[in-house]
């Protein structure tokens, strides 16, 4: 079947990006999703190597991953799929007056990711061999996907996940808003997003919404059956070890890795230790 994704001419932030058109549903209008395949160094011995899907953080995009997905895919012998969620990178921006609902992460796992996989003709057989790798908000989406579609993945790796809201998270996000509005942070982020205010305020506004303080996906985690690796840095200023410890309590087969000298972004703060941990975990479950 011919893919319904359409290639794009060299966009500003990501020259190798392509775009997939997702139809409107009850939860969203038509969407244009920026994506990229990372497969140049996929295992040459495998005719159909497994796919690793990368889910970025709350202010992330394809470009902000830099070369880490490529490095990890080479290590794992997998193809990689990276994409910018709606509101980020070169994907459909959030309308200025739109405010994301409290359950916006659930909608990403339930609706957007499956629709993108459909658009790229990733069938059930491929999904059953697929690893979902998420960071921060993307890690929460990975957990929700693994719970909602327990038979449509091989396993999940979550880095600095959020499963409930902690004071430290809200305080750091409030500080980030101040930096965005008073320093050059906005200009720096604008390198990675076509509509930087769409990306920043979509994420910041929902996290600082008083209603969001009650957000929790703890009770939603029990259906996760596939292998699960949860990774947290000891120096994370957006979350504590309570996040991964709670995951372990809800998903007894989950394996935890707690990294020293590591903040909120293990792939930037401790890439060697992170890649070793992921490679060992995936190898043990393949």
What's the SSE blueprint?
Elements: E1 5-7, E2 18-22, E3 31-38, E4 51-55, H1 62-65, H2 68-76, E5 79-83, H3 104-119, H4 124-127, E6 131-135, H5 137-148, E7 155-159, H6 167-182, H7 185-189, H8 196-208, E8 228-233, H9 242-250, E9 255-259, H10 266-269, H11 271-284
Parallel strand pairs: 4-5, 4-6, 6-7, 7-8, 8-9
Antiparallel strand pairs: 1-2, 2-3, 3-5
Helix pairs in contact: 2-11, 3-5, 6-8
Model description:
This protein has 286 residues and is of the alpha/beta class. It has a single domain, classed as Alpha/Beta hydrolase fold, catalytic domain (Rossmann fold). The protein is built from 11 helices and 9 strands. It is globular and about 45 Å long. The chain starts with a strand and ends with a helix. Mean pLDDT is 92; it is low at 1-14. Pfam families: Abhydrolase_6. Keywords: Hydrolase. This is Alpha/beta hydrolase. Residues 53-277 form the AB hydrolase-1 domain.
What's the gist of this structure?
The chain has helices at 62-65, 68-76, 104-119, 124-127, 137-148, 167-182, 185-189, 196-208, 242-250, 266-269, 271-284; strands at residues 5-7, 18-22, 31-38, 51-55, 79-83, 131-135, 155-159, 228-233, 255-259.
Number of strands: 9
Main sheet attributes: strand count, strand direction, barrel closure: 9 strands, mixed
Task: Quote the CATH topology.
Answer: Rossmann fold
CATH architecture: 3-Layer(aba) Sandwich
Which percent bin holds the helix content? 25-40%
What overall form do the CA principal axes indicate? globular
| CATH classification, class level | Alpha Beta
